[in-house]
Amino acid sequence: MGAYDVARLRLRRAIAHGEHLAQLWNSLPTEYLCTPKARVGPNGYGDLIVTNVGEIPEELPLLLGELLYQLRSALDACIYQATIYATNQDPPPNEGKLEFPITHDPKEWKRLAGRRLSAPARHR
Fold it and tell me: pLDDT of 72-95, one tens digit each?
């Protein structure tokens, strides 16, 4: 496999899950749908409240979880390959710690990026 092929495969898998999820969702009778309400506080944080109005097929949350997992894994695969490129080492240094940082707080992102994306630079 070439560089980034694993990330591409995971992305294609996420797309397939998303298409299946959309088909399943679009086939639901309207009585199965939920009523969402968003509540945002003055600090910018909030809650999403969902009132269930019917039974949701068991497959739907599984597909959503698998889709999100594949998207996350695609990001991590990109980081892994980029680190191989940056360090010219395969496996890359700190391979077990490499992970794409995900957070809603930009300051937290910087802290997480320093910890999860750290690898020595390539020596030329």
Answer: 999 999 999 999 999 999 999 988
